[in-house]
Amino acid sequence: MSKSVQGFSLIEVLVSLVILLIGLIGIFNLHIIAKQGSFESFQQTQATYYVHNIISRMRLNNSELANYAGTYTGSSVTGAKACDVGIGVVDLCTTAETRAWDLFQWERSFAGENETSVSGANVGGLDTATACIRVVGTDVLVVISWRGVRKTSDGAVGNADNFVTGCGAANDRRRTLAINTVII
């Protein structure tokens, strides 16, 4: 007489658990990669905002256009006279004071000083950002480079313009955004 055995053996259960574990590890890794990609995309969006922000400021103060040129690291411009327009503000600024205020505010924003954690650390802005502005007549090139999350190739390598490749420290995590415009 043969007995019919029903149910699962211990080996079958262990094999099923190993297969399940491999699937869960894959899903977990996919989640990590998706989070990194999302953060990289967010940084690209921030960089685009910062570049367009300074271009808008330069358009509003175009008599100082040539004086906006330079390399900025988030700490190169010291405090400036506040030139924000507001209700009840009677302080008028010269174009030079406005340029200094524009650059001061711009550098603070991309360095992350406008957003801080409870402990006081800068949490906004871009990681290790460097911005460069070149002005030739009315042609303006604004470049911003920052440190990305993942190692890839250098974001400025292969660019024909040496000004772009010279903005920021060359490494395998550098991301670069360059926008060329005309301000008249």
From TrEMBL:
Keyword Kinase: no
Family matches, as Pfam families: N_methyl
UniProt key word RNA-binding: no
Signal sequence annotation: none
TM helices/strands, residue ranges: 13-34
Keywords, alphabetical: Membrane, Transmembrane, Transmembrane helix
Superkingdom of the source species: Bacteria
Record's protein name: Methylation
Source organism of the structure: Shewanella denitrificans (strain OS217 / ATCC BAA-1090 / DSM 15013)
Taxonomic path: Bacteria, Pseudomonadati, Pseudomonadota, Gammaproteobacteria, Alteromonadales
